[in-house]
Every structure is written in C-alpha cells, then in structure tokens.
C-alpha cells in the first residue's frame, strides 16, 4: 500500500520540529525525517525542507518499495485524498439512509409503490427535495434490490447525491454509474416536471430504459425512450413521461425542430417545462469532446456543383510542400505562390478568389479532403455514402455531414454522387444547449483533468466518488520506441506473451486503419482476436464483443473505449450470455419480418436486402446448455408466440418484453414468467463455468490493457486504462508509443525532435524521465490547445446564443399564445416609429419637416390609410409637436389594424389569428436563417480587425448586436405589413365547383322556363 493511504494525519510539530506520525509507519523513515528536521536546513513548511527531504524519500522508495513521490512533492502527503473527502462530506446522509433500510425493507410491494405518491404529495405541499432525499433514496435502493437484484452500494448513494446537487460525479469504470442515475432521477421526477437521462447512443438509451427503468416503473413512475427512428407522436408521449432516456443528439435536434414548428401540435418537448433536470452519462465525451461540433438542421439549397469533381482532380495533381502546405495542428491548408499559379493555369482563371466562381473554396476543400480527411480514420464509405467517424468514441455518425462544402469535397474524392449543398436553418452547440437546463449533472470515469473547463464554461463542480473496493490495477511505465514499426512489433510480442499465459488482453488503437493493421499482424501470428471499430459489421456486435473480453485468453482490439456502456467481467458475463441465447431463440418467432426488413437492412434504393440474422456467435457461449434447459426455453418461446402472436411484434416492443423477462420486475404475463424461468436456468448453467474461469483469470493477474498510442486527451487514455481493475479485480496496463505517433509529431515541439536525433537506437525501447516529461507536456499542450479553441468558440457562441434565446422565446410565445393582438399592436406602433425617425428629424425646424412625403410613406406602408395628407399630420404637429405627431401616427396605424381584423373576421372568424401566426413564424424563420449566414460570415471577417489593433471578439459583439437589431426590426415590419396587405381568397374545391356549376345550370334553365311561360302568356 502506498504511504499516501497510511499516513493521513502526519504533521510537523511546532515545538520540537520533529515529524509526528499518528499512524503506523516504518520507523527508519521517521528517523530520516527527524534527522533532517533537526538540522539547520529545515525551515518549517518551506521549500528547503522539501528539497532536503527528496534524496531520503527516493532512497526510501528504492529500499522499501512502498513509497512514491507524487506530483505535489513531499507535502502532497499532507493533502487529503479527494475521494476520501467526498466520503466524509456525505457520510452522515448515507448513515441516515441506511437507518431507514430496515423499515423500508419491511414494506410490501404495494406499500413501497405507495411511497411514491406520499413523496409527491410532500413535494406538492412545499417540502424540498433535499428534505425527502434520504427516504426517496432508501425507497429506490429497496426497489432496485427487489426488481434488479442489485442493492446500491454506499458509494453509489454518494454518487446519486452529487448528481442531485448539480455536480459531475467522477466514478471509476465498473462502479455502476447506470444504477447511480436512478436515484436522483427518481427524486427529481417527483416534482412532475420531467427528467432527461442523456446517453451517447441509441443502444445505451434503450438498454438503460429497459433495465434500470424497471425500478422507476415498479415505483409507479412512467419511463420514456427516444430512438432515432421514432415518429413525432411517439416522441411527444415519451417526453411527457416522468423520466425520459434519450441521446444527446436526439434531444438537441428535437429542441431545434420544436423551434421550427409551424404549429403547437408539432411540438414534441413539454410545452410548459421543456427543460428541468438533466443527467448526462459520459459527460466529458458530450460536453468536452463534442463541444466543437454544433448541431445543425439544414435545408437543401441549389443543386450540387460539378466544380467539386474538377477541384478533386486538380487537388490530386498538386504536390504537398510545393504547391501547398498543411498545418495538421490547425487542420488548415495554405496554397503557395507556385500553387496559385498552377491552379489558375489549369482552371484558366485570372483570380481564384473571384466571388462569382469561388474556385478558392473548392480547391481548399478538395485539398482538405485529400490530406486531412483520411478514409477509415475520419470516415468510412458505406452503401455509396460518406459516414463520419467520431474521433473520440470510434463510432459512426450516420446522417451527420461536414459543413461548408467539405462533405461534398470528400464525396468527389471518393468518386461518389455528390449530394445537394445545404443551408443552415437552425443551429446550436452542446455548450449552449445544455447550459439551458436549470439543473444539470453528469457522470464519467474521467473528469479530473478537465475540472477548469467544466467550472469556467458550465459552472459544474467535479466530485470524485470513492470506489466500493480498493483498486488493485498496476499501471506499468510507458515503453517508447523511436520508430513506429518497432513499436508494433513490441505490441504483438506483448499480446503473444499474455495470450500464451491465458490472460485476457484488451488493445486500444486510435483509428480503424490502425486496428485493422494490427489485426492483420495478429492473424499472421495465429492469434485469434475480436475487432471492435467503426465498421458497421463490428458496431452491431459491440456489446457481444466487449461483454466477453474478460474471458480466459480473449484478445480484443478496440478503436476507443469511451462510452461503451458494457462492463468487461473477468471470466465472461453470464447474464449477457443467457440474455443473448434467449434472444436468439425468441426474436425470430415473435418479431415481424416486415419491421425487421425495414429497420435493419436497407439498400440505397430503399429496398430491403436480406433478413437480419438473430443468431449469435456460438463461440461466445462457454458451454452447451443441458437438454432440460433448452426444452424449458423452447416451451417458453412457444408460450410467447401463443400469447403475443407469431411474428407480430415490432423490434423495440420485443426487446422491451425480453428485457422484462430477464430481470426481476413485477409482471403477471404468463409468457414473460416462463421466459424468466428459462433465463434463470440458462444463467445458472453459464455462471458455473464463468465463475470457475474468473478464478483462473484472477489468479493469472486479471485483464491486461495495451495502449498503442497516446490520445489527444489524457481522459481517453484513462478510459482505456479504467477497463482493467473494476470492482477491486486485479489488472495491469502498459502503453507502447513511438516518437513518430501523430500526437508527438504534431504537438511535441522541439524537445521531442531533439530527442529523436539524440537516441540512435532504432529497435530498443527508451525509458527516460526527460522523455516521459516531454510526452506528458505534449499531451497537456494538446489539451490546452483544444480548450482554447472551445473557449474561443464558446465566447463567440455566447453572442449568438443570447440572440437565439430571445428569438426562440418570442417564437414559442407566438406559437402557443391564444391571441397575438397585443404583439401586433406593438409591431404597428414600433414600425410607425421607425418610419417617423427615418423621415423626420427632431433637430430640424418644424417648417422643414416633409409631412407630405411622410404621409405618402404611411399610405405605402398601410393602404388602409389612403387619403392621408400632409395637412392631416400638420394638425397633430400643431397640437403636440414631434411627440404629438408620433402619437397621431401610432393611433392611425393601430386603428387601421383593428379595421383590418374586423373585415377579415366578418369574412371568416378566426382566420386573422391564423394568418398573423403564420406571418410571424415564417418571417422569423426566414430572417433568422439569413441572420445565421450573416453572423457566420462576420465571424470570419472580424478576425482581420486584429491587424488594426482591435479585439475581434468585441467587434463581433458590436456587429452582431447591430445585425440582431436590424433583424428584429425587419421581422416586425414584414409581419405587420403582411397583416395590412392580407387579402384572403376563397379556394373552391372540386365538389364545390361542381355544385356551383349545377346551380348555374339550374338557374339558367329556370330563367329559360320563365321566358317560355311569359311568351305563352
């Protein structure tokens, strides 16, 4: 055990200047310290004391092996462990919850459910959530124990309290973050205002709602789920539930779509409280890694230009460092003089920056596609489409596109059909979006390195939650090679060594390309392995691969481990195996084939290819099930078919029913109970094998993690390390690096370059404190660099965000308001004020005021004022001067508005209200879209003002405010003008036309008959 864990209350005595130790510690070490402290070198709590102690501390470390100098130096040991500080802070409330446990445990299921209504009544009568927290947490703990068979640890209660207080809980991998979220979600849902639990992908959202959502349902709360392919009606119902599980992108896009809705029925978020309390899983991935990528809803613009293909051919012919330079750090391309001349010569143009052709943007994007967007790293090609790969999670992002023509440039590079260019209709960053929640909380295994960013941008404190069991993972020193090829050779050797011993091995790579290359090397060595990367065929088996990565001899390659959401259990995950086996038997019998086709297998022409196979890889299962268990499972499946119908269920419905069957939640459905019985039998058989295998793997040393490259962020490296050593299991990690890795090549600086030339050995690993410091410095430099980018984007986005909030608030008020009369009157008065200020100056003499021209402008603005003359306005001026003129014009405009409303209402009641809302929404959407384009252009332009010694951000705020004021003025002018000009025309339907035609014929015949009668007379 490290000394930091033993020596918690050591201090230096003020009187004797001796080191006093209040816990057991090696006496020789104390004598060393006291010897130093009695010398003339010692200044209490000063630097000389630290410096003089270092040699002794180092010698002690070498001789005893149970002491290490931390980053804080010697006095780092006088600081308390942050996790321990968290435990002490919340221990009293944990004890309070534990005291309630016997009483809560004695309740029946119905009595436990009634507790929810009791707590709701308490909140409604004025009780604070903090006051009912102990009882609410005790209720959830008992429900979880009964439904899931999982009793939340004390550390999980602490995590729940941290989340309830609107903080970020840093919890190590395997500590049960998913179950932690259930506690504060239940407590905050008691207010009836809704809770959002945000995850990083649809699979995790569905899994959490199905599994831990059973606790909420058992306690009488409703649980909603949002999936990517859901219709608006289903989304609206899900958001009205007490707790809604949703992905970050779906929630953000629903917010943007709501602010483009043409009518109240189109809204999907709650109308009264769209946002209340939000818990974000993998909060660092969403709020940090994805903060640079805004959510954008775009509309189709003009047809794609063929210039993209021509630019791709030109870019392919250009030579790097001759015709252009690449800045990988800034991710930018710069043409050289030779490049300008070559491109202009090939394209036969005189100016690349001619705004009529815009060849410069096409060429720059083509070069970015060539140099910076790498296939199988930045994107993959699937079914003739470019699909972006998330650089942090390694997942594909279908439906997302790069902006500003870059996506079209990549399509041209790959020779694919170029899709239409787009124009931004609505946009928001995750930074701005999640700051809109009154109460925000998050969970992650790695947040400590980003404390300053969470605090400065989101005002979210980070609290480290203590682990349930003491960690036993060994993090070995990095092994660094000068040349990359020798690094990969060493990685393969390390994997072979571990595989031979039987230890499971998890290898982390930074791209699809690297994982497939390493997979080829392992295949050549005859090492069986599983690959998990952004390729679609691997993503679909993600959970299967990860859940079994802890089995004896398993070798797993993964592009990134962030947000995988599945634990690696040593010996294998018997629960997942049994669930997978039951799913394999049940799904083909109860899932609709039509639904299955439409959901999973689509070609580009929209036709289904082949039915999805539900069969799992047989090698995932540790043993063959007994005949009795298989017979029980088949009997349960037949009962389900008889009860639910043969191939009648949709996939999501079937998954939900299977999830209930595999848990312990209350159900009266006989088919579900039979499936549960079969699941328990399967689980028991698999568990016998996995428990035995776990004991073997633990004896071998647990899961070994191999990192093949340092990531841009230390958090991603820590996430990979965190997969080993969960819940006190043994484990180890080691990173293999080379000085040719992208991180050090781009960000390493002169120190790394000098090290590359200093070390002459090619194929041997290097260990050097100076080298390790240089690597750490490079990584910190990258983190700071990207933080500066995000902070800069945040500063600029704050300007747009303030404007967006006001525009969306006005739009929503108009959408939901029963009457817009007051707003229209305001628009009429303000527009008249604008006309007055544009045509008449207070500073001029009244005799110089051009009242006739002003009257003409008013008539032009509102035709209902026809007949108004300058003489009419002169009377108002004579009575009250400038303000009298303003009041008279306002009165006339408002009277004209009421006159218009009256005439339309006589024509058709309620029509004017609909027209006003339509005009307001359309004008707001159109002008806001134009405003976004103008703001985007201006943000690029103000950067040049730095050369004039002006702060670009300040200039952006000033110019942005001017644009905003102009936009709002345009909205109200256009809306009220359209109201004045509104001339409804009756649309005659075909049946009405036919009726009118028949009436006309009948009238004509009647008239003819009358003439005949008169003639006869």
UniProtKB/TrEMBL annotation:
The keyword 4Fe-4S belongs to this UniProt entry's keyword annotation: no
Name of the featured protein: Protein translocase subunit SecA
InterPro entries in UniProt: Helicase_ATP-bd, P-loop_NTPase, SecA, SecA_DEAD, SecA_motor_DEAD, SecA_preprotein_X-link_dom, SecA_SF2_C, SecA_Wing/Scaffold
The keyword 4Fe-4S is annotated on this UniProt entry: no
UniProtKB keywords: ATP-binding, Membrane, Nucleotide-binding, Protein transport, Thylakoid, Translocase, Translocation, Transport
Gene Ontology biological process terms from the UniProt entry: intracellular protein transport; protein import; protein targeting
GO CC annotation terms, alphabetical: chloroplast stroma; chloroplast thylakoid membrane
Database matches in PANTHER family: CHLOROPLAST PROTEIN-TRANSPORTING ATPASE (PTHR30612:SF0), SECA INNER MEMBRANE COMPONENT OF SEC PROTEIN SECRETION SYSTEM (PTHR30612)
Organism of this sequence: Chlamydomonas eustigma
Family according to the record: Belongs to the SecA family.
Domain (Helicase ATP-binding) ranges: 158-300
Domain SecA family profile: 72-768
Topology of the protein relative to the lipid bilayer: Peripheral membrane protein
Segments for region (Disordered): 998-1017
Recorded GO MF terms: ATP binding; chloroplast protein-transporting ATPase activity
Lineage: Eukaryota, Viridiplantae, Chlorophyta, core chlorophytes, Chlorophyceae
Cell compartments where the protein resides: Plastid, Chloroplast stroma; Plastid, Chloroplast thylakoid membrane
